[in-house]
Amino acid sequence: MGGNQRPTIKTVAARAGVGRTTVSRVLNGSPLVSDEARAAVLAAIAELNYVPSSVARSLVTSRTDSIALVIPESESRLGSEPYFSAVIRGVSDGLAGTQIQLLLILVRDQRGLESLEEFLTARRVDGVLLVSVHRDDPLPGLLETLELPTVLAGRRSPEESLTHVHSDNVGGAAEAVRHLLGRGRKTIGTITGPLDMDVGNSRLSGWREALVDAGLAPDETLIATGDFTEEGGRLAMRALLERHPDLDGVFAASDVMAAGALAELRRHGRRVPDDVALVGFDDSIVARHTDPPLTSVRQPVEEIGRTITELLLQEIAQRGTARQRVMLPTSLIVRGSA
């Protein structure tokens, strides 16, 4: 270490020859550490004169009256995706009438993750709300290690161990595809969300479920993977049209991707809904401002925000509360695109 650079969990871990998670466990008195590893970490802390926070020790047993809303996305994604702003409104509603302060934290990269780890280890907040969860995201595991009250908007998988709230993604997607089938569409493609997210897989499962229930075999070439961005929807729609020029229906796993798909269909001279019927998911402001307006699966995003907040406040007030799984219903809103 040179200059005035302060030691961090990362440098302590490197000196002790262990992972950062082990350092976090030692700092928080977790029993899930071997005597040998604990001794190595404590020696490294002493050698480096590492202090996690001037108030960290007192904060372990006292309240900060603040919670963190952690979104592992960039500012551009936060601004372009209506889902996030709706969640934030719901969280704010859930905190109305309390004295709890809300910190919004974006985690853009590995450096941001390491800074967040330092922040959370120092117990600067009483609990964490985590939005936009990917299967291999290290944050949920870190929060479990720190034994910090945590509630997720979404889940890593159907086996999610942390308290979480999500929409009926399978049922909503199936309803969208059943609607397209009911309108006489026969070749129905889907633009998925990222498949390292449960939400992406669940909405794809709903597409498959509706086709199977109708006696149709899902054609894997009618699946194009997107990333919940408008450009991703445009590229996925282009791929579907190249494979299936006879396509007459599309279910997109978000309104933003559906808007990109709509632009690509127009570029190819396809009329919506005459030639291709299109359904999105979210029923966000985007759905009401496309031309034609977008048929979309409504999910109660603000209610998700309120519910995760209420559940987190319960966990903070009553430590050891049983973890909960909440699924909120969806509904199909029919407009001009289908």
UniProtKB/TrEMBL annotation:
GO MF annotations in UniProt? DNA binding
Q: Which keywords appear in this protein's UniProt record, sorted alphabetically?
A: DNA-binding, Transcription, Transcription regulation
**UniProt KW NADP keyword:** no
Question: Which organism's genome codes for this protein?
Answer: Streptomyces litchfieldiae
Show where the HTH lacI-type domain sits.
Answer: 7-61
Q: What is this protein called?
A: LacI family DNA-binding transcriptional regulator
Mind telling me which InterPro entries this protein's record contains? HTH_LacI, LacI/GalR-like_sensor, Lambda_DNA-bd_dom_sf, Peripla_BP_I
